Amino acid sequence: MTTVVVIPGDGVGPEVTDQAVHVLATLGLGLDLDVLDQVNADRFLRTGVAMTDDEMERARSAGAVLFGAVGDPKVPDPSYARDVLLRLRFELDLYVNHRPAALLADRLSPLRDPALRALDCVVVRENTEGAYAGVGGVLREHTPYELALDGDISTAYGVTRVLEYAFAIARRSVCLVDKANAVPFGGGLWQRRWSEVSAAHPDVGTSHLYVDAAAMRLIQNPTAFDVIVTNNSYGDILSDVTAALAGGPGTAASANLNPRHGVGLFEPVHGSAPDIAGTGRANPVGSVLSAALLLDHLGHGAEADALRAAVRATVAAGTCTPDLGGESSTKEVGAAITAEV
Amino acid sequence: MTTVVVIPGDGVGPEVTDQAVHVLATLGLGLDLDVLDQVNADRFLRTGVAMTDDEMERARSAGAVLFGAVGDPKVPDPSYARDVLLRLRFELDLYVNHRPAALLADRLSPLRDPALRALDCVVVRENTEGAYAGVGGVLREHTPYELALDGDISTAYGVTRVLEYAFAIARRSVCLVDKANAVPFGGGLWQRRWSEVSAAHPDVGTSHLYVDAAAMRLIQNPTAFDVIVTNNSYGDILSDVTAALAGGPGTAASANLNPRHGVGLFEPVHGSAPDIAGTGRANPVGSVLSAALLLDHLGHGAEADALRAAVRATVAAGTCTPDLGGESSTKEVGAAITAEV
Ligand SMILES: CC(C)[C@H](C(=O)O)[C@@H](O)C(=O)O
Ligand SMILES: CC(C)[C@H](C(=O)O)[C@@H](O)C(=O)O
């Protein structure tokens, strides 16, 4: 039996994860759910522990982790999010952050030109190095001479494997996004690895954009993109741009993967949204679509597709939370998707 | 007499700069134009010199620099752009990159909802540190064990002064954009300086967003922003997002400033666009609006406002290059603005 570790987290995390768990249970795939409901801001405030080593080991030995969101205004210390989400990504070596964005319904596009609305792309974000590595420090803190350095790390090993993933999943083309004209060392490394990996895939179209131009082009011509591959920071930003174009933050899903081994981590792109926690307004679609990616990962592709179809049908029928212009609650949307599937 | 150094550069740079120079000349302000037309890719390829020390000194002692664009597919070496544009920014210590974005005409907005189209904000980008500092290096190049590091540098000195500028120009509010939840050292420094500088301006509204959320919110709710202040990289990206929302890359202008001393550098946000160079399709609006910012800098505010009004009138009349849906050439648009002013 496959174990799925569930980490609901903070804010709207538990509410949306609940709906995803219900849908998964309905599918009757015999998944064994192991809910780690102590990974949250309350415990962190009480004990200073973001995640115990036992919890980490349970995640490591699971088939998949379904993650909600972490973050709470009561915890001003930003290291809390790092110590949960980034620790999972880094320690499980989940080097791919796979973030698909496909417009859910025409009415959800923010774009004026109907011909440009139907984006359907994947941001493949390097997930285990870059500016997120935590390499750096601060000198002379609390003086006027304070200086901080954050090291943006790129390795041939890390970049090659994520580029290979991007080419492996491309349907038509891969667009490399970097900023080699201004951030030279990592930029050069990415471009050297790109030359090598892209040459090995002559069947896949290729293009290159600097990150500023990529952000602009996504708004101006989103349907031009298939797979975008980029570093940790640029992927963070561009996947929020694609989410905004595909239906908003409430709908975006992601898979944190290491295609070379077992466990993957699946999470909505939205955060803990403390302002709407407990109001029933949180959109469960991002979490449910993350559960669909989890099913893909566990080899249940047919069920994953059925789940995606159920989400589309539910949204098309107008059963939506307020962020999508609807009047339904988190639970009502979850129930509608469950009924549809 | 005030000297304006003009660096037309490469690609469409000379074409658009020409139009801005014509408009400036028409205004009859007695500016002394010193055109450095050797700063381009051809000379770099011939001599390996991007900019001579003499050219650098002429820029330094000018009242302002009007810059076109640098970059050419014949120059694969990305250090060329660094050695011109970034050298000017860094050596002249132009610590503010002021990038206004105001929708030029309703029909140019890519957004569907009419109520969201009229953005009118300024991205204040730190321009002399961050990931652009060129601090870092590469180990084991051309081996499978290659590693690159780019240092993202933040200093109290650099961050404080750019935050102060943001508050000084705010009409309603300043939004700090960082990624302190993932990139901790610089993020912490920015937040500490922010607490101090914002406390000194109780009259100005404040908010804070992580950069991914900021990119999304700009698309979802652009009119909510007044001044956005952020680091070099995030400013680069977000100002292309605001440009896309305000009328496209052809229209965006910028001022590189050091409010504590003389010279400023004014440039369109677009690059050298080699694909359309020489076709007469390049949009001169970004360069002309940069010239308006140059006039502001030189104390000719009334003329700057007249120039902006002339641009709006020209665009409203439909005299536009193809990127704005028109059929006019670079020169025709320039002439129409000149006639209008
Ligand atoms: C050409 C490049 C180095 C530059 C930058 O990133 O600053 C450009 O994109 C800009 O925004 O002015
Ligand atoms: C919470 C934060 C550290 C995280 C990130 O930047 O990776 C989030 O924004 C995301 O995109 O998953």
From TrEMBL, chains A, B:
Its cofactor is Mg(2+); Mn(2+). It comes from the Bacteria. The keyword Metal-binding applies. Keywords: Manganese, Metal-binding, NAD, Oxidoreductase. InterPro entries: ICDH/IPMDH, IsoPropMal-DH-like_dom. The keyword Oxidoreductase applies. GO terms for molecular function: metal ion binding; oxidoreductase activity. This is Dehydrogenase. It comes from Saccharomonospora piscinae.
